[in-house]
Amino acid sequence: MRVEILCTGDEILTGKTVNTNYSHIAQRLTELGLAVCRGTTVGDDRASLLAAFREAAARADAVIVNGGLGPTVDDLSQEVAAEAAGVPLVLHEPWLARMEAFYARRNRPMPPNNRKQAMLPEGAELLDNPIGTACGFAVTIGGRRFYFTPGVPREMRRMLEEQVIPRLLAGAGLRGVTRLKRFHSFGIGESRADALLAGIEALAPEGAVKLGFQAHYPQLETKLVARGPDAETVERLLAPLAEEVRRRLGHFILAEDDQTLEGVVLEALRAGGFTLSVAETLTGGGIAARLAPLPGAEGVFRRAVVAREAGELCAALNLGADAAAMPPAALAHALAAALRREGGASHGLAVLVAPDGGTEGAEAGGTIHIGIADPQGGAAREARLLGGREWLRLGAMELALDCLRRRLRGLPVEERVDFERR
Q1: What is the 3-state secondary structure (H, E, C) of the chain?
Q2: pTM higher than 0.90 for the full model?
Q3: Which of 12, 224, 311, 337 could form a disulfide with 181 if both were Cys (CB 3.0 to 4.6 A apart)?
């Protein structure tokens, strides 16, 4: 089955909004074995949309349209879809009632223009949106099935998984169950991971499980996609391969599936009855910003001290005037110990980052010193990472959280990563 993805909106066409919806849809379809034959972006213009719908119907087996389902005058998907299908727009009474109830639960009157969202092409199949007011719909245009989805990313993703993908798989004759297993790692590059996992697909029947990678610095996502007649069979196929991935990638695996590194760290702290304070330079408080919003963080995360220079951290943590002159490794540990003392936390994490001077070229980088203080004493880590200032900032945050994860789980903190300058 050839699927075209058609994204609408002036903000997408002009580049004001980065089109992450397209990348998500395309990746999910590819993982499931559905061929994406084309991606098209069209602005909020009736004539352009109408032409795009008709052209897509002539070259694809199915089309996913994203965006244009809102209540404003520039949201044109329903109207143009009806014109392309040669049918009138009709009011979908059940969806209108859903929207009215949505606003009533919030003690707000429904704006009159929201009624537009319940106007669908006659004969269209409603695609449920349990978390928003924009329903999706499916309609046939030029003999091809079109699936219309909202532009709000979380609404689109929910509708894609629950409404669109099952219909596409059925239309393609791909019966059964598909399962995606994800492993998130830090410190290992894509080529090295590919070499380490060579031949792993052969542990399952031919074509049953597919291995893939997605690099998004500083992490690498390793993916296993399995398809089978039922959920039990799929899990049986995946189990030995997942265990083999864990064995081969080892300590580099940070988290799995929907877990995050910061979530894993927070859970390890909470499980041990621990608390944490952090001190950061260069990262702009990025480590604290990843930990503090998580559910349950209020019982674990005590304090964050953010500064541009190490001397400012020393002053904030009541270290002596001479502390800033200490060697960076010793200073990082002293700061971590001061975080425990001043912040009343069981664990202190200090991150000192010193960018190299000069340009932002390929050889740019910097030195990172990490100090961890805990009831057992502590640990230290020094690394020199390649990349410009932003890559150094991202790498420092990831390395610091990973070191803390390793320390909490009794894993080696000093294990080198592929991004380090030798």
Answers
A1: CEEEEEEECHHHHCCCCCCHHHHHHHHHHHHCCCEEEEEEEECCCHHHHHHHHHHHHHHCCEEEEECCCCCCCCCCHHHHHHHHHCCCEEECHHHHHHHHHHHHHCCCCCCHHHHHHHEEECCCEEECCCCCCCCEEEEEECCEEEEEECCCHHHHHHHHHHHHHHHHHHHCCCCCEEEEEEEEEECCCHHHHHHHCCCHHHHCCCCCEEEEEEEECCEEEEEEEEEECCHHHHHHHHHHHHHHHHHHHHHHEEEECCCCHHHHHHHHHHHCCCCEEEEEECCCCHHHHHHCCCCCHHHCEEEEEEECCHHHHHHHCCCCCCHHHCCHHHHHHHHHHHHHHHHCCCEEEEEEEEECCCCCCCCCEEEEEEEEEECCEEEEEEEEEECCHHHHHHHHHHHHHHHHHHHHCCCCCCCCCCCECC
A2: no
A3: 224
